[in-house]
User: Fold this.
Amino acid sequence: MTAQGGGSSKIHSGAQRRDAAEAQAAHGDAAEARAVQTRTRDRQTRRTRRVLIAAADEIFAEGRFPTVADVAERADVARATAYRYFPTQEALLLETTFLGDSEPLRSLSDLAREIEDPAERVAEGVRRAAQWTLGREAKLRAILRMSLDPANDVRRPARRRGYIAELLGPTLKELSPKARERLVGSLTLLFGIDPIVAICDNSDVDPAQIPDMLAWAARELVSSALREQRPTRPRRTSAAKGTASDGGRARRHA
Assistant:
């Protein structure tokens, strides 16, 4: 009986080990299947993006500015899918070869780690953005013209406030709601093609100086906003000074 019981125990133990091994193998197979699905989706995502961008470049080559709908039709991709990749026309244009490398704009948030002083950080962000914009002035002017024509149904995304929030970072919390709104609203005037059009079309300023001019304006705006938030020591009135002086003389006389 004892030997028989021991044999049953060994058989049961072996079955448990086999079950555990099979479960582990099944888990590994499922994980591998998920990894394969993820890689497949990633490849499909990259492929779809490439097809949409290629379609936009083709339309540019024909002398037209592509809309997201145009690109979807040319690429034979559902409009809803195309809008998931590029919610706006400008988002599409920034990804095409039309405007060249857009990395300088995407890397503005890196300045938060590179420059400690908020005024200098925002100034450098405005300078870099202006340099990028000047290199594409004619093309960005064309986009601006399209956005001003209601018939084109072209809207430029409100990305400037995002750049400003990233550049100011925790500094925004130091400002009152009113001061914060005033500063951010003022800084939006320094990004994009708009200030460059205003300066170039209304002055004799050398375009090469524009990035530094806009950076100076940004630095002054941020510095002024922060100065207004700092508590100031109350100024002593002449009467108070006289009282303090009289008191000092009285103590010396005593």
